[in-house]
Amino acid sequence: MPTITLPNGDKKNFEKPVSAAELAASIGSGLAKAAIGAKVDFGDGQGPQLRDLGALIDRDATVAIITAPKPGQAASADALYLMRHSAAHVMAEAIQDVVGKDVMLAYGPPTDTGFFYDMFVPAGKKLSTDHFAAIDKRMSEIIAENRPFVRYEVAPGEGMQKLKAEGNKYKVDNAERALGLPSTVYHGKKAAFAGVDSASTGGQAASGTGARLSFYATGSPGKNWEDLCRGPHVPSTGRIGAAKVMSLASSYWHGDETSDRLIRVYGTAFATQADLDEFLKQKEEAAKRDHRVIGRHLRLFHIDEDVGQGLILWTPKGSIVRKELQAFIAAELKKQGYTEVFTPHIGRLDLYKTSGHFPYYKDSQFAPIIEREALEQLSKEGCSCAEMMARVEGVSQRLAEGLNHRTGLTVITPDRVMADDKLIEGFMLKPMNCPHHAKIFASSPHSYRDMPVRLAEFGTVYRWEQSGELNGLTRVRGFTQDDAHLFCTEEQVPAEIQGCLSLVKTIFATLGMKEYRVRVGLRDPDSAKYTGAKEGWDKAEAACIEAARSLGVPFSQEPGEAAFYGPKIDFVVKDVIGREWQLGTVQVDYIMGNRFDLSYTGPDNKPHRPVVIHRAPFGSMERFCGVLIEHFAGAFPTWLSPEQVRVLPISDKSNEYAEKVAAALRAADVRVSSDLSNDRVQAKIKVAADEKVPYMAVVGPRDAEQGMVSVRARGVEKDLGAMKLEAFVEAVKAEIASKRAELGVRP
RNA sequence: GCCGCUGUAGCUCAGUGGUAGAGCGCACCCUUGGUAAGGGUGAGGUCACGGGUUCAAAUCCCGUCAGCGGCUCCA
To answer: Catalytic positions of A, please?
Structure first.
């Protein structure tokens, strides 16, 4: 007979199996009323599992009752999960009511901010945003009807028969996978939905370990709407606080682009209408911060279709932001003993055949640049495209032998080896800076006493991102990494990783990015794809974990996420409105030394392979600036602002004094302009505020007489008072030098 | 790359087959105003590009390019 342990440690004994609802009632009527589900841990190693309130607890377990939040309280993640999972059913029913019963449902899980449901809309039918009002209305009705979610289970055979009779192959597929059967309807390249939650609607339709199929009816089975689903759900539709259909997108069945195209309908649900409204408001706020919108408004950058997709033109104002940021990072690097290098934007194909980038990653690179004479010769010879590709990708005997020997692997297969006169020479826009840096390291001899060698470059690289992926500054085809390669001895790896992290810490702290986390990518113990000695890996992984731990921010260890050549640390920052952005990485590399035959002389007077650490902690200047634009909503701290002070004469009688004020600021290296338009000062203030200028110095005859300026600071909607010009200049100068994130200059 | 939506003045957008529109911005004039938009006049468009249907196309159809929302991808 079950003994149930509650979250507070209390134990309750029952004579017979009880439902979670009965358990809640036995604790208190208030709890029973608020309960919408339960989290049950049978101690069977599966951990706590979310269950229906009606789920029977027939053996010893630890149980937490999931409740709808009390007024004013935030809903728990579990409560939202139950509501959203349930809202997905409500939305699906509403869509079938509005668009047609022949809309075939595929797959509908909760997500971080709501839920979606993938569905197939038959030819001739249409589902568009025009239907949203009707769908929302129908959803509200279903929620108001407060119909119970009723679970029932059937034997596999019976269930499959039922689904097949309904003619929905997607549900048949879900059921087959839930039962662990080979799929009879899906023959695509993916065996399962990768990376989605296993407790999804239809995604896992089996109940527990028993091979039965479960269905949920929204009301009475056989009478009301129902769906193959593993659950769990809230007890009834009325327990979904507020739900809304959000947007349409397309998706593929099983995320497989060669398979059926489905329509993905996004929706969201919250415990209360107020929470939903708050969420919608936040979304609006996020849209206002969009760096593409702000970037255009403040003229920070421009993308021109005549130049090309994903290629950023930094306008004068944006260039200032980027340059200041780069100078800041560069100064920190100098403190850490980095040395700066410059390398060109292209390199010979052989360089990338040596590094392994070409042709292995050719799909994400710009096409090779082939010399004109070679192209003309080939075309004269009537060379086919396929042959040309093979000859571009071919490798000389010498290079192949050297590479295979140094790496101890067959990195160049015999079919790629080609006679020298068959090879086509060419260049490539560089997709990474490391080959160039490796060559700089190799260009001079190194003693273990000189290690580590830290080569830093704001290096511009080019990658052929798919056109649909391009997005403002955050996903582009040409970008400048805050790149560096640390060539070090094995013993130096931990300290160097630490150094990278402390740099990140300093810079995030200065920019006021308080919330960030790191992901440590480790090798998958079951995979053989990794290269390098196990011992080195173990040490490097330990060093990464230790370094991450020492940061004092949340970090996760993610087995299987390592690069094939070494473990890595990724940085994810959270901006002021809670969105996460993946920035840069630190990666340990045991391969590059071999490929480029790098060495240093050890204390034993013998050559040793250096370990290489690749690090670009902010990823790219483009993405980082994009994130910063959104983080600050365009209102940069003074030291980063393209324009730091604007002088506003109240009439043209004060223009001369305004110019004098501006000159004094300019002489102190402050970025300043004066607004000599014939607008009234109110209008000038409005414009300067719109353009997010940190400080306004309003000057009239009164100020001119006494050598003063009247100060306004961004975000403060009033005149702060007057101060001596010299004092103002000094204060602004000091603020810039301090890189303070807040505006602190006051009279 | 794939699916859907979109493309009209520097920006934001109206205009559904019959002479191209607004607000902001810009230029000039008046106004000389002390803290979040003073007034007037004016310039500015091959309606993304190419083709088609039509007496007539910004508008309808096809294609291309680009942007947006997703999917897939991301060394």
So the answer is: 434, 463, 481, 483, 485, 568, 614
pLDDT over 80 (residue A653): yes
- Mapped onto helix, strand or coil, the DSSP state of residue A625 is helix
pTM: 0.86
Whether nucleic acid strand B comes within 7 Å of the CB of A583, the answer is no
Tell me the β-bridge partners of A486: A454, A613
A454 touches strand B (CB under 7 A): no
Q: Is A47 within 8 Å of A62 (Cβ atoms)?
A: no
Q: pLDDT of A458-512, one tens digit each?
A: 999 999 999 889 999 999 999 999 999 999 998 999 999 999 999 988 999 999 8
Q: Distance from residue A465 (CA) to nucleotide B10 (C1'), in Å? A: 30
Q: Which parts of A396-492 fold into alpha helices (H)?
A: 397-407, 434-442
> Could you report how far apart the first and last alpha carbons of chain A are, in Å?
76
**Nucleotide nearest A194, from its CA to each C1':** B72
pLDDT higher for A128 or A113?
A113
Q: Is the CB of A699 under 7 A from strand B?
A: yes
The CB-based long-range contact list for A650-655 (8 Å cut-off, 24+ gap) reads A650/A681, A650/A698, A650/A699, A650/A700, A651/A700, A652/A676, A652/A678, A653/A701, A654/A699, A654/A700, A654/A701, A654/A703, A654/A704
- DSSP, collapsed to helix, strand or coil, labels residue A677 as coil
How far in angstroms lies nucleotide B5's C1' from the CA of residue A53? Answer: 42
**β-pairing verdict for A339-340 and A453-462:** parallel
ipTM for this prediction: 0.94
A432 touches strand B (CB under 7 A): yes
Is the Cβ atom of A288 within 7 Å of strand B at any atom?
A: no
The pLDDT-based confidence of A188 (bands split at 50, 70, 90) is low
The string of pLDDT tens digits covering residues A222-273 is 899 989 988 899 999 999 999 998 888 888 888 777 778 788 888 999 999 9
Residues β-bridged to residue A608: A600
Residue A387: per-residue pLDDT = 87
For residue A684, report the phi and psi dihedrals to the nearest 5 degrees: -65, -40
**Sheet with strand A645-649: strands edge to edge:** A672-674, A645-649, A695-699, A708-713, A722-724
Q: Name A330's Cβ contacts closer than 8 Å, sequence gap at least 6.
A: A340, A456, A458
Positions on chain B within 7 A of a protein C-beta: 1-5, 11-12, 26, 29-38, 65-75
Rounded distance in angstroms from the CA atom of residue A605 to the C1' atom of nucleotide B58: 78
User: What is the nearest nucleotide to A472, using C1' and CA?
Assistant: B67
Distance in Å from B38's C1' to A105's CA comes to 61
Tokens of A49: 């599992």
Residue type at position A81: Y
Gap from A294 CA to B9 C1', Å:
21
User: Model confidence at A699, in pLDDT bands (50, 70, 90)?
Assistant: very high
Residue with tokens 């192959």: A169
Any atom of strand B under 7 A from CB of A189?
A: no
